[in-house]
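An instance follows:
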Amino acid sequence: MKSLYYIHLFFALFLLSCSSENKPITEEEHNTESTYFPSINSDVWETKSISDLNWNANELQPLLDYLEEKNSKSFIILHDGKLVVEHYMNDHNSIKSWYWASAGKTLTTATAGIAQDQSFLDINAKVSDYLGTGWTSATIEKENLISTKNLLSMSSGLDDSLGDEVTPENLQYIADANSRWAYHNVYVKTQDVVAAATGQNWDTYFSENLKDKIGMSGQWISLNNLSVYWSNTRSMARFGLLMYANGTWDETQIISEAFLNEATNTSQNINEAYGYLWWLNGKSSYRLPQSQLEFNGTLIPNAPDDMYAALGKNDQKIYIVPSKKLVIIRMGNAADSENFALSSFDSELWAKINALIE
């Protein structure tokens, strides 16, 4: 009887083992196991060829010609972390820096997430808990409605028509927090919140907890009382790769996946296509800077629905597409006319990208 028992036990364990071995690997598990990360101490970056991916090689040159024609300076495509396309044009190269503009807002998001992960702050707490009262011109009652989450989701309710400066005189009440979405430079007060909460200079905390941990270059440069990030193109790609990998870098969790899940999903009930300073594709409607209009349809109809993006003035772009394992970077001057975030260039560029990858 004992022998029969052990035979049954062995058979059951064998079936369990087979079941485990044949279990389909989820996209998330695949990313964890196979995503490539360049060293933080070297700019050497492994590559992957277009032929390896069975992409349409004949469509690469038309894409690059289009980018050069549209005032681009650099363009990168990563597939699961490896470089597939890297091209520089219009008197730019791999070591020159360029500005991220509002695409750099997402660096503020990431750093705030790290500070929350480390229990320095709570984005749901009111801003005045960290900065004290009087950081706006609103009454204390109205000012105390504004949380750091409102800054990150552009739902502070402060007047967006008073210029770029974020002095109290320019931060005036127009509606209660959470009742109005408006693209506003007040988001930069998040950097002051992080500095106050951590007891460190913003740049120091950012560098030690994000920039240095993924091998980025670059620096914050003050323009019109706002900090704008400048770096080479690969540094922007490194940040995009960190996001693609759910906040990990070579098995080290830099930002919690839980925070990034919030950051890259709809953050309020007014603009479906906006997370925490990230633009979200695949939603049923969206709103744009300097407007209170709601537009039906997705942000970039010919881009994958699961894509989310950092969009900066004059067509600075970080596109992240988990379903296709892609991170795509574009830096340069405005493709056509000046713009704040989304432009017609997005859909035109995606038509060229689709011709290459599909």
Observations:
- The longest strand covers residues 72-79.
- The domain at 97-125+184-327 is CATH 3.40.710.10 (Beta-lactamase).
